[in-house]
Amino acid sequence: MLNPSKFRNLLRRRGIFPPVIRLGLRAAEMPYTWAVRWRNWQYDSGTIATHRVDVPVVSVGNLTLGGTGKTPMVEWIARWFHRHGEQVAIISRGYGSRNGRPNDEALELAEKLPDVPHLQNPNRLDAAHKAIEELGCQLIVLDDAFQHRRIYRDLNIVMLDALEPFGFGHVFPRGTLREPLSALGRADVMVLSRANMIDSRQRDKIWRAARHNAPNALWMEVAHAPRALISSNGREEPLESLAGSAVAAFCGIGNPAGFRHTLEASGYKIADFREFPDHHCYNRRNLKSLAAWAARLDVAAVLCTHKDLVKLNVDQLGNLPLLAVSVGVKILAGQEKFEDKLRKLLPTGVAYQGLPHRTKSLK
Predict the structure, then answer these.
(1) pTM of the predicted model, to two decimals?
(2) Residue 297's pLDDT band (boundaries 50, 70, 90)?
(3) Strands (E), the chain
(4) Which of 171, 150, 146 is nearest to 160 (CA)?
(5) 218, 237 Cβ separation under 8 angstroms
(6) pLDDT digits over 252-266, tens only?
(7) Are 140 and 71 in contact, with CB atoms under 8 Å apart?
(8) How does strand 155-161 pair with strand 57-62?
(9) Which end of the chain, N or C, is surrounded by fewer C-beta atoms within 10 Å?
């Protein structure tokens, strides 16, 4: 099986064989695209019902396969509502979870948002009812839900990765789009993630292309800014502690290139980089292999993403420290108008000021 980087290289490479393979992928793309369009038409026409729940719903999702920075955005939104007195719940399908246990995204969010319940259930409507009726939640954030159309959402947010915004112009498997670009018309907010990694000319080009499909959507630009290096026991170190040092790095996420860009932008020299499948479940054999791999390199530490670290739960690989790069959202453009949209979802339609939180404050 191709890892994410090799698959993307296949979609862009020239030569004799890649175009031939892409022809086969194009043939597979057509029935998949038809099925997606048919499903969307059923929701658009009301043939399949969309259900409202009793509290406001905000959805954060992707148009493409792989990571676009949804989790940091979900965290930012949940914190914003929590600061304004709302009891928030996060709901996701739980991709990659096993035996009913939380997946990597749930584990990561649980560490960052200990006071915000995260319900994982393939039946997200049932999870929403549980969050409202049993947990008393006043607002729901749907994670990875742009294609989930069963629950009505009051604010529909789609993330576009600046490094790969439109999935090579094709629906999977010919490209990395989950559905045709016309689906952007459902978005209330389009967020260009990793916007700091391209220049203003490129950002403007992406904005113009996206606006063609969603002329009324709010446009935002965000950076996924590294905050610190963290260990599994919660110890933090400044990013600068390894600046200029050689490091080994690995990840099991949907867009490894984004993580690699983050490391390089932080000033780390990547001696070697390993990729695992998205939502990879690490085992002892993986740990042993990673330790042996890192030991062969002249590096100061081994780095991974926070999503990887919460599953590994170890501080070292062999004699080398294992650290995760903690990342958060920094809004570069569109924040004021975005917050105006969020305020409209509060009970009074305006931000609470001077009132105590209804739950204890987040760390």
Answers:
(1) 0.83
(2) very high
(3) 57-62, 88-92, 118-120, 139-143, 155-161, 189-193, 218-230, 236-237, 246-251, 269-275, 301-305, 316-317, 320-333
(4) 146
(5) no
(6) 888 888 889 889 888
(7) no
(8) parallel
(9) N
